[in-house]
């Protein structure tokens, strides 16, 4: 019961953005706080040792500006990130609105490729990789076309790359 699930139930990877200003260095702890304020709640009984300081976060992974992949909910716990598909999906969130750093794009590619390979741990059977907006009409998140990105060999669209900060 509750939010526990079998890894075999996971078929979909959903990519999000945090919708915070491009280039602003928000962290997974910030998102955890925002989600707590919205009433989200993790089931900490499910995996008490797993990131116990994050009590609300709805995503399974957050990719911060420096490319760090920060784990949120354990995969065995359904997320809280996409209406109708929380039970069968993994939620991955890029910090930013519609422009992400090269490091974030690189980490996203590596994470998506490793999670979608059934022969390597955690041995998932991912059939769909998409953006939030592809599952929930009316949303624009993550503000780029995930299918195009995949078709282009995970090359980020130029318009969605955060320009280098000039001193
Ligand atoms: Zn989203």
Automatic annotation (TrEMBL):
InterPro entries: Amidase/PGRP_sf, Amidase_domain
SUPFAM superfamilies: N-acetylmuramoyl-L-alanine amidase-like (SSF55846)
Alphabetical list of Pfam families matching this protein: Amidase_2
Protein's UniProt keywords contain Hydrolase: yes
Alphabetical list of Gene3D superfamilies matching this protein: Peptidoglycan recognition protein-like
Domain of life: Bacteria
Protein name (Swiss-Prot/TrEMBL): N-acetylmuramoyl-L-alanine amidase
Organism, scientific name: Parathalassolituus penaei
